[in-house]
Write a structure and sequence with these properties.
The complex is a heterodimer of chains A (about 300) and B (about 575).
Chain A lengths: L20 H32 L3 H5 L13 H6 L3 H33 L6 H13 L4 H10 L7 H4 L6 H14 L2 H9 L4 H12 L1 H17 L2 H6 L8 H10 L11 H46 L2
Helix pairs in contact in A: 1-14, 4-8, 4-11, 4-13, 8-11, 8-14, 11-14, 13-14
Chain B lengths: L1 H24 L2 H5 L51 E8 L11 H10 L1 E8 L6 H12 L6 E3 L5 H9 L7 H7 L1 H9 L3 H5 L9 E5 L11 E4 H6 L8 H14 L19 H4 L12 E4 L2 E4 L4 H15 L12 H8 L9 E3 L21 E3 L21 E8 L6 H10 L3 H9 L3 E3 L14 E3 L20 E2 L1 H5 L11 H12 L17 H27 L7 H14 L1 H16 L1
Parallel strand pairs in B: 1-2, 1-3, 4-13
Antiparallel strand pairs in B: 3-10, 4-10, 5-8, 5-9, 6-7, 11-12
The chains are: A mainly alpha (about 300), B alpha/beta (about 575).
Amino acid sequence: MTMATDTATPTGAPAPVRETRSDRIVMICNYTALGLFTLAVLYPLVYVVSASLSDPKNVVSGKVWLWPVGFSTEAFKAVFDYDSIVSGFSNSVVYAVGGALLATVLTLLAAYPLSRKGLPGKGIIMALFVFTMMFNGGLIPTYLVVDRVGLLNTRWAIILPAALAVWNMIITRTYFQSTIPEELVEAAKVDGCTDLGFFWRVVLPLSKPIIAVNLLFYAVAQWNSWFNALIYLTNEHLFPLQMILRQILIQNNFDPSQVRDTAELIRMKELQEQLKFSLIVIATIPPLLIYPFVQKHFVKGAMVGSLKG
Amino acid sequence: MQEDLRTAGVKRRSFVAGALGIAAAGGSGVLSGCSSGEAAAGAAPASLSAPAVELAPKKTGINYPPGYVGPVAREQRAIVTEQVTFTVVVPQNLTIGDWNKNAFTQWMEQQTGIRIQFRQVAGKGDDPETMTKVNAMMAAGDIPDAFLGVTFTRSQLYLYGAQNLFVDLNAYLDKYAPNLQQAMKDYPEARRLIRSPDKGIYSFPDINDCYHCRASNGRTLLNTDWIRKVGLAMPKTTDEFREVLTAFKKADLGGRGKTIPFAGYKDAALDTYFMNAFLYNPGDPWLVVNDGKVEANYVKDEWREALKYLRGLYADGLLNKDIFTADTDQMNRYGNNPGAPLVGGARAYYWGSFLTIDQTDPNARWHQYETVPPLEGPNGIRYAAWNYLKVGLEVSTLVVTRKCKRPDLLVRWADFQLDLEAVLRSYAGPDFRWSVKGDKGINGKQSIYGFDATWNSDATKGKTWDQFGVMYRSGDFRLAERVNPQKPTFESPLYEQTRDQLFPYKQPLEMEFPPVTLEADQAAQDAEIGLNLKGEVTTSLAKFVTGKLDPAYDGQWRDYKDRISRIGLQPYLEIQQAAYETYQG
């Protein structure tokens, strides 16, 4: 029960530190700058959502600038009329989830041994990994490899070639180095724990943040990627959502002077007006949904991992 | 910060991937390592020994207009009795959906007995992405029997054809493509347009003679309501045109000083309309033929005069400020301005470039805008750049590769699609109805067919090949589409305005620079210099018009011409001249 007024000096608690004038100016500048950044990031998001929920006519005539005008969910209904969009969405989920799980497992398995002192040839192995960051075989040779091992035109062609990012592996290794002290390994060994047992019972439970970070990195990378699908797939039923999205977005980039048919121009225009925004929203929702759940681990994991190179 | 971390990995990778893509799309080099010396593995001996195919008898009960030139419905029969399968690579397309399950695919299979296993590549068929994938396939030897709707340039066709990767169809077309032979009689220039410099024909072409497209590069529209309101007439000369725009601005019919007397956007070049009051100008790449000599427009004095004219319009505030930067979306916002129209006129391919076309409302805004005839310049020049050669015939519609064992069957399959009924099903779907005697078409003559719904609506999803198929759509055919007097579309006004306002002012055919085919090394040079020239010409045009440079000032005009010649105008023109002479044969 506090009876103290502003003027009375409470005896128990220390007086709050008074903000100086310059402090306050810094704070105001900070909030203004951050506020502006937030607006800059938020506005396009809000606009796209609003546009997707508006009557396309109002979007085209520029009536929509912040809130939906002429509320309509037609655009979303139209999206589901296209089989390839529906299948694209589920494919993307498969690629993102499957790709993230596999890649995370591989990353952990590669990073942990490399983080321990005793691994023979550690320098060479690490150098080999880093080498692939700088150099790779190029498009055609990689394509040939994927072709010859029989991955072409299968879901594996999307998941396997992207299954390990060296960059993520290095972050993970650094995380292990800085959070799992060598003494812990020794203690476990004294108690009769095997390497695998240690990895499973001690390392993994202590590494939730970095696992979360890896899952998110890989999932988002898969979710956003389209180039591998472009190169390796010729079966429409395997195409990820981003390919379909691209297809619709690039339709705007045609050269009108090359189009053979005015009616075709109209059709493209209608298709785009109808689907563009709703499709962007649909493609953005899943990462936005996952993000809050991973976020609490995220700062910690990525920061610790990136501390020392 | 979190955002940075989250995307950094993605960005780096997509950058690498992108770089690879560009390297591969760089093109011709990729394939040069590929077994060019090997004899064509493909064609089985049987493929040319089958007897030649004759034109099938005409179907009855279809009303053709008098003097009709174009596809005809015939009693076509199945091509094979035992099912044969070919693998064909096609671009992915949302309207077509799954090619293998598409309704027209099934119809074709039923009719011809030939089964096609489609493989779909992403992209539109003519963009770098599609070509990246196609190049990778060919380099890896992962070659289908044919490509359909994948746009190889004439030079690429020639290059791959000379390497024996693509089949020379000459003999096959002569023997097994009676419909195409007929079409090439209707369009005599076709043979020359599909032939490579070595006389090989490396693709099955597609004829789509879109009348209004031949002039759409230079189409300009003015608001006739506004012209009436300011008490003037449709302008005929450059001076009158300026007068009309000035009156628009003064009357401020858009209200609150927001009137845009004349609007343009970055995808619709200004020069294709305005320069034609000073010299014949077809637009990018601005090449014309003068007495058998290839010339570039953008270094001529007439070009400079035209720039001065445009500069004047811009300086007086008669053009929108962002005429060189506005995109389609922006242009549509101007055009569709709620309330009163904002735009007095526009450089547009058709109304849809800046307006939403509402065909159901007879008072819709697009009805206010009409095609302006070409303007007469101070020296009496008055052209509408007419596209005789680059519109109407597409090469590379169907490309047969050396993997194909029976090119004759694929050629017959393609030829089958040139039949009237197949054409209709191919681009419009099964929901057409033959016209009865007395139904009027777009051009006011007897119509042949029509649709109860608009063929491009959602209803055709999964039913058509969306213009990717092999087609024969002659001018007469296109204009014989029935017009529903209750629900007229924009096709009739578009046709009539093109016929009345633009066609009479077309330039002679000899002046048009034809689509030429280049040798591999020339093609590389042409692409490089051409790209730089295009950059210089378009940026300088924008600078001259907006006043960053002054066309009236001799020094700046000379500097501009110097820059052009340093980029390599001379060697560029030599390449084009040689290619032109090859084309002329």
